[in-house]
Amino acid sequence: MEGHHHLDQHPQPPTVKIFCHANEGYCLSIRDGQHWIKDTRHSTKVKDVEGRSAFSLVNKATGEAIKHSLGDKHPVRLVLFDPHNLDESVLWTESGNVRNGFRCIRMVNNISLTLDALGGHVEVNDGTSVVNWPCWNGDNQIWKMVPYGYDAIPNPIHSAPTSVCTPCVPVVFGHHLCSLTVSSQPQTVKIFCRANERYCLSIRDGKVILASANPHDPFQHWIKEMRHSTKVKDVEDRPAFALVNKATGEVIKQSLGDTHPVHLVPFNPHDLDESMLWTESSDVRDGFKCIRMVNNITSTLDALGGNVEVHDGTSVVNWQCWNGDNQIWKMVPYDDEAIPNPTYGAPTSCCTIHAALCRL
User: Fold this and answer.
1) Which domain holds residue 161?
2) Is 38 domain-assigned?
3) Distance between CA atoms of residues 95 and 43, nearest Å
4) Which positions are tagged coiled coil (predicted)?
């Protein structure tokens, strides 16, 4: 059954209260909603680097899921939970037992970042914010999920819960989708690293690799998709973008952790999924820049083994940033004559992409 269940099924799934070891008298909450559903529908498909199953934490009162922060020491966010969308930025895993049955709750794609009751190593109080922080197994970083009794389940789904725990309120940021107008097909770029400029980012056998540069190979043409750049930025305030392959319509998705290959998934222009968003660093050397996860800029695109040699077929992974030549990249627009055969949907001219906020 792959752990599937739906929030609108009857009876409603049991809810849990979530509290940290620093002070069990305070429970995770939003807007006085302390009942959470540990949604495990993706647990058989998505696991972290330790093989631990992923889950979402969905608030019973609001239907919102806890979303990864934009980086360590930043607050976690809340987004409406879409049960039909596999978005790794709302997926978490639990560590093994740290102390007394308490565990770390980590990002599925970066288990070094955990839920943290901010300042809770000194004192947890009513209104303590919840952030992501590098894991050190402090009492304010280890958590326990305990089922409520069925008599405590709020009813209906949007009513306020009746638990007596005092809430810890995470900082909430709103997300509103943008509309997009495009004057024509966007220009494509080639992407290569400084280790060897004769090999370009491409797709082969469903994987992101480096291939011998060929401007007529449609799989080497990428669109730097900027539609979310005004809304989503990294901790250095650099705008986010997606890298969409012109030939396949697939987008590069963040890996499940350092040294793991990046993924390819179909690009949905109407879905704001931060697990497929990246940012560029400032110039490292000769105009080459790191391409980092928007929500973890310490993890960058890396031509695997390219510190020794880049070759045709080199895999592309995420790796801790050290600014090696195999980790710094350049995006260069193709000349018009280099555009691949139109049967692959090649662009015919450069365009400007305009993004505007939708009305609230």
Assistant:
1) 16-168
2) yes
3) 14
4) none
Buried b (16+ CB within 10 A) or exposed e, 65-86: bbbbbbbbebbbbbbebebeeb
Q: Which residue, of 112, 147, 168, is where some domain finishes? A: 168
Kindly tell me the burial class for residue 180, based on how many C-beta atoms sit within 10 Å of its own C-beta (0-12, 13-18, 19 or more). middle
Q: How many Å apart are CA 302 and CA 129, to the nearest integer?
A: 34
Contact status, residue 197 vs residue 211, Cβ threshold 8 Å = no
Q: What is the largest CA-CA distance in the chain?
A: 69
In this predicted model, what pLDDT tens digit does every residue of 281-308 receive, in sequence order? 999 999 999 999 999 999 999 999 877 7
Structure tokens belonging to residue 91: 């997926």
Q: Of 137, 168, 199, which marks where a domain is finished?
A: 168
Q: What is the pLDDT of residues 146-203, one digit of tens each?
A: 887 533 333 333 233 333 233 333 322 222 222 222 234 578 999 999 999 999 999 9
Residue 10 lies in a domain: no
The per-residue pLDDT for 288 is: 96
Residue type, 294: V
Distance, in Å, from the CA atom of 262 to the CA atom of 318, rounded to the nearest integer, reads 6
Q: What are phi and psi of 36, to 5 degrees?
A: -125, 145
Examine the domain organization and report whether 148 and 194 are in the same domain: no
